[in-house]
Specification:
Blueprint (H helix, E strand, L loop, with lengths): L3 E6 L5 H9 L4 E7 L3 H5 L9 E3 L3 H4 L6 E4 L3 H13 L3 E5 L6 H14 L3 E4 L6 H11 L6 E11 L8 H17 L5 E7 L9 E7 L5 E7 L1 E13 L3 E5 L7 E4 L2 E4 L14 E4 L3 E2 L8 H15 L7 H20 L3 E2 L7
Parallel strand pairs: 1-2, 1-4, 2-3, 4-5, 5-6, 7-10
Antiparallel strand pairs: 7-11, 8-9, 8-17, 9-10, 11-12, 12-13, 13-16, 14-15
Helix pairs in contact: 1-8, 4-5, 5-9, 6-7, 7-9
């Protein structure tokens, strides 16, 4: 397939960014932009003169020349819109979280596999240069055995009414964790509170356990006076801090850590600490400065043209949604939630 035609449904906050990036790809033509709000469409008709603006989603489904549909609408609409698109023979890129339930995710995955279509989830941060650098450092064993993953994603607002702060902000860092660690946790423990009286949690803490000693912790909030986007990763060899709020040196690698003495050899050593600290240099490696959404949209088109499996495929979307579900159940019950022995494939 030389030329790929794309339609975008949902032209609110994220839709214009998707349209811009797809429009800048040489082998792509954005033929449809769909939104139920006429004023959103009217603002940009002059910018994309060759694009068909429509409030009717059926216009995209019924156009046999349209190859792919990109869905940037509220999460509760994802399943039905993506299902219709797949059944109409369209490749699909859907905004995060993939669906409102894991059962809905599983259905979309099955349809895409049966129809032999690309199903990809917009986990944008997976395509972010600093995150890809951290992945390289982990995969090449520069960090060593992973000990902990600690994430803070907080700001003042923007409050949502259809999902809580875990589904809104936590989905980002859970997708990053899923990509970097590549293993399924064994349990999820979460606490959260609503301070507005509407029952929607605006602050939450999540802790994920693994079969070994790895532990992952997440803090998400709409009630912070400052905006923070930071992930710390500790390894047996080195430690990493990824600060996405920083304008420079977003990734810092620290040659710091601890070493433990196996067994005291003499009585004198029994009075010494069994922990020895290692202090080394810090370096800030160079990473790809490309816009993450540009890398992601190019990857989606490449998967369509060459039949490749997306990095953030439907199964990765399912894993994230399953963790979000378990976190929500843990908040409601006050108890840790266990993943099935087989985990999420």
């Amino acid at each position: 397939m030389d030329q790929v035609t794309v339609g975008v449904v949902g032209y609110g906050y994220w839709g214009p960014n998707l349209v811009r990036n797809f429009s800048e790809i040489d082998c792509v033509e954005v033929t449809h932009i769909c939104d139920r709000e006429p004023e959103r469409l009217s603002k940009h008709r002059g910018r994309y003169r060759m694009t068909h603006f429509t409030p009717d989603y059926n216009d995209l489904l019924n156009d046999a020349s349209l190859n792919a549909i990109v869905i940037a609408t509220p999460v509760h609409t994802h399943h039905e819109l993506a299902k219709q698109a797949l059944l109409a023979g369209k490749h699909v890129l859907v905004e995060k979280p993939m669906c409102a339930t894991s059962a809905q995710c599983e259905e979309l995955i099955a349809i895409a596999e049966e129809m032999k279509l690309v199903l990809m989830v917009d986990h944008t941060f997976v395509y972010h240069g600093p995150v890809r650098l951290v992945k390289h450092l982990i995969d090449t064993d520069e960090v060593g055995e992973l000990l902990y993953f600690n994430s803070v994603r907080v700001n003042l607002g923007a409050f949502q009414t259809d999902v809580n702060v875990v589904w809104d902000l936590g989905a980002h860092d859970l997708s990053i964790m899923d990509y970097l660690i590549g293993r399924t946790p064994t349990d999820v423990h979460a606490i959260g509170k609503s301070h507005t009286g509407n029952g929607v949690e605006d602050i939450a803490y999540l802790t994920l356990g693994y079969e070994d000693d790895l532990i992952a912790h997440f803090h998400v909030s709409w009630l912070s006076p400052v905006k923070t986007r930071q992930i710390s990763i500790g390894g047996s060899k080195k430690m990493i801090v990824f600060d996405d709020s920083s304008q420079v040196e977003k990734v810092r690698v620290y040659d710091k850590g601890i070493e433990t003495m196996q067994e005291p050899q003499t009585e004198r050593e029994r009075y010494k600490s069994l922990i020895q600290y290692r202090y080394g240099d810090m370096r800030a490696p160079v990473y790809d400065l490309s816009e993450a959404l540009k890398v992601e949209t190019l990857h989606f088109i490449d998967c369509i043209r060459k039949g490749h499996q997306p990095i953030t495929d439907g199964k990765s979307g399912l894993r994230v949604v399953r963790l979000l579900e378990l976190a929500e159940q843990s908040i409601k019950t006050g108890k840790p939630q266990l993943l099935s022995p087989l985990g999420i494939k």
